[in-house]
Design brief:
Layout: H1 2-19, E1 22-23, E2 26-31, E3 37-43, E4 46-51, E5 54-59, E6 67-73, E7 80-84, E8 87-91, E9 97-101, E10 109-114, E11 120-126, E12 129-134, E13 138-143, E14 151-157, E15 167-171, E16 174-178, E17 184-188, E18 196-201, E19 209-213, E20 216-220, E21 226-230, E22 238-243, E23 249-255, E24 258-263, E25 267-272, E26 280-285, E27 291-297, E28 300-305, E29 309-314, H2 316-319, E30 335-337, E31 345-350, E32 354-359, E33 364-369, E34 383-387, E35 395-402, E36 409-417, E37 420-428
Antiparallel strand pairs: 1-26, 2-29, 3-4, 4-5, 5-6, 7-8, 8-9, 9-10, 11-12, 12-13, 13-14, 15-16, 16-17, 17-18, 19-20, 20-21, 21-22, 23-24, 24-25, 25-26, 27-28, 28-29, 30-31, 31-35, 32-33, 32-36, 34-35, 36-37
């Protein structure tokens, strides 16, 4: 009987974890540029986001309230973005390599466009060179020492049988390619004019993205999840670990002891890779639509989502950067029921919290509760709300009824206590 009880408890814990929206990762902010986002690069106080035919400069000084700061248009569909100094470089699909001056972030200016002759997918800039991958099974090395006059100085044909090389990462005189159906391809680029193939590792599925950290290459390998390859000897790469409890791994970024992996069905997954031979999932956030790219900076993971735009996720649990005394209550959670809803939704939040509702563009729709007020008057924030008295377990319940003028869609309810925030996504169906 005792064994059966233990088994039941373990099963219930597993089910609870599987049904959770997040673990140790929370939504801090959301910016919707008008279209879905395909990739993101972060430098200082700005996130540079690209999508179908656009580029946006987003001020993320306050990650909870990101705002548009600058914009530019692209002629094609940029798949990838990287930056170096005062410039960002776009792998701009059919148009090739596009170079943008961001010395004044509010007014980005295109300074040149290099036509590669085929669709481009990946770009990485190191020193005076841009390494560009794309169709025609190519790695092109372009001298960008004068950004207004880029010149191709090297070319390597990867001879990919099916999928072309998608992303590229340059480190230590080598270009590491996420080479589609071939897997990992390692090219010696110490002499940019004469790139030389030195090693490869067949990951068996489709290598979509790659990040190199130390002696390891981390590959987002589609249905095979995260592959970890020892590249200490570039001519003899060796797989040392993998994590395959994913659906389709499309993106990866490594920071410290963690790999942040984008899965287009399961959202952001945080994998502990401190022991590369035994990677372990330690956190996740799965309330994404169609995530595609990720960049980690400071305490935040910036996720480019083709449905929702730019999601800014708080990952300070793993980075340890934001270790400030917290005034949050012992019970710090928020829920919405039913979800989706069509006329009213019951929101459960910590007692004494400020509770607000936002649309996906970050516009505040309603203030449901403030710390200094026991209740909010009906119809404030273009809605009707009601509040139940705080319960003994430290939480309060609110009923939100959207105004008739409010349309169907995705809304975010946020509770804030003592500078700490937690957010929940709600779907309103009229």
């Amino acid at each position: 009987m005792k064994a059966k009880t233990i088994f039941t408890l373990i099963l219930l814990c597993a089910i609870g974890s599987a049904l959770a929206d997040s673990l140790h990762v929370s939504l801090a902010g959301l910016y919707y540029p008008g279209y879905g986002a395909g990739d993101v690069y972060v430098c200082g106080d700005y996130a540079y986001v690209v999508g179908y035919d656009f580029g946006r400069v987003v001020d993320v000084t306050e990650p909870t309230t990101p705002r548009r700061f600058g914009a530019y248009t692209t002629g094609s569909h940029p798949y990838s973005i990287h930056g170096d100094g005062d410039y960002i470089y776009l792998a701009d699909g059919e148009d090739g390599l596009r170079i943008i001056d961001i010395s004044t972030p509010s007014t980005p200016i295109e300074v040149s466009l290099y036509n590669t002759g085929s669709r481009t997918y990946g770009v990485y800039v190191s020193s005076d060179y841009a390494y560009v991958t794309g169709d025609s099974s190519s790695l092109r090395i372009i001298d960008v020492s004068t950004p207004s006059s880029p010149v191709e100085v090297g070319f390597f044909n990867t001879s990919t049988a099916y999928h072309p090389p998608y992303k590229v990462f340059v480190s230590g005189g080598y270009a590491f390619l996420a080479n589609g159906s071939i897997g990992l391809r390692i090219i010696d680029v110490s002499m940019p004019s004469s790139p030389n193939d030195v090693g490869f590792f067949d990951t068996e599925v489709i290598a979509w993205d790659i990040h190199v950290s130390g002696n390891y290459a981390y590959i987002a390998d589609g249905h095979d999840g995260l592959r970890i390859i020892d590249i200490t000897i570039p001519s003899s790469p060796l797989e040392v670990g993998f994590y395959d409890s994913l659906h389709v791994a499309l993106g990866v970024y490594v920071s410290g002891n963690y790999a942040y992996v984008i899965d287009n069905y399961l959202g952001l997954r945080v994998i502990d890779v401190s022991t590369p031979s035994h990677p372990t999932e330690v956190g996740f956030y799965d309330e994404c639509d169609y995530p595609y790219g990720v960049y980690v900076s400071g305490s935040y993971a910036y996720v480019a989502d083709r449905g929702e735009g730019l999601l800014i996720l708080d990952v300070s649990y793993f980075t340890g950067i934001e270790e400030k005394p917290s005034a949050k209550p012992e019970v710090f959670a928020i829920s919405a029921h039913p979800n989706p809803f069509n006329s009213a939704v019951t929101i459960t939040a910590p007692a004494g919290a400020e509770v607000e509702v936002f649309d996906v563009n970050g516009r505040r729709i309603a203030v449901i509760a403030r710390p200094e007020a026991a209740a909010i008057s009906p119809n404030q924030g273009d809605c009707f709300v009601g509040q139940s008295p705080p319960r003994n377990d430290g939480v309060s319940k609110f009923t939100w009824r959207p105004a008739e003028s409010l349309g169907s869609g995705v809304y975010l309810v946020r509770a804030t206590v003592g500078g700490e925030s937690i957010t929940k996504r709600m779907v309103y169906l009229k």
